[in-house]
Amino acid sequence: MSIASSNLKLVHDAAWSTLLNLQKMPDHPRHRNGGYLTLMRDWGLIEAVLLVGKCDLASAQKYYELSLEKASRLFLNEAHRSSHESRNEKNQMYRGAVRARNSSLILSFSGCTENEDEVISLMSAIELESMDVAEAREIAAISDNALFVRYLAEYGHEHDIEE
């Protein structure tokens, strides 16, 4: 089953909204204003690669390739939930891709810091209802991504759960 065009708009808007919110946070690098979001099926089919925000031409190619690499690497490591689990900075293999447990979707973002990339992927998955906030918290915990916890505290989410 492919992702409907209305859901592509939904996930793009969720990623854009998350990026805008991250830009308001004090430790966001001001020169990071966009990137690429890859949506891949768990069997390796790339459903979409979406530009979110703005990137200069040199950065755009790099972020596009990194977003695809993260998603592909997570696909190849079937037991992993996060690209953090196969991260290798020396080989330019970074965090930012997540696998939803009960859907067949991998989401990957590249263009910001690794923590921000992961937050954008997680919030996009939540908005698509591919995962709930509890599952997203589990994935963020794999990489000790405290930014995700701070993001939820600051901006919340309509699908959030009481703890």
Proper CATH architecture: 2-Layer Sandwich
Q: How many structural domains in the coordinates?
A: 1
SSE order in H/E notation? HEEHEEHHH
What portion of the residues fall into strands of 2 or more residues? 15-25%
By secondary-structure content and strand pairing, the structural class works out as alpha+beta
Cα-based radius of gyration, to the nearest Å: 14 Å
CATH topology: Beta-Lactamase
Helix content: 40-55%
- Provide the low-confidence segments as ranges: 159-163
DSSP summary, beta strand count: 4
**How many angstroms does the end-to-end distance come to?**
34 Å
Mean pLDDT across the residues is 90
Count of helix runs: 5
Shape field: globular
User: Strand count, sense and closure of the main sheet?
Assistant: 4 strands, antiparallel
The neighbouring-strand order within the major sheet is 2-1-4-3
Would you identify the CATH H-level superfamily? Haem-degrading domain
In brief, what are we looking at here?
The chain is 45% helix and 15% strand. The chain has 163 residues and is an alpha+beta fold.
Question: What can you see in these coordinates?
Answer:
By secondary structure, the protein is of the alpha+beta class. It has a single domain (5-155), classed as Haem-degrading domain (Beta-Lactamase, 2-Layer Sandwich), CATH 3.30.450.150. It has five helices and four strands; from the N terminus they run H-E-E-H-E-E-H-H-H. The chain has helices spanning 5-24, 57-76, 114-127, 133-142, 146-155, and strands at 34-41, 46-53, 97-99, 105-110. The chain has a four-stranded antiparallel beta sheet, with helices on both faces. Strand 1 (34-41) and strand 2 form a beta hairpin. Helix 1 (5-24) crosses helix 3 (114-127), helix 3 runs antiparallel to helix 4 and helix 3 packs across helix 5 (146-155). The longest helix has 20 residues, at 5-24. The termini are far apart. The model is unreliable at 159-163 (pLDDT under 50).
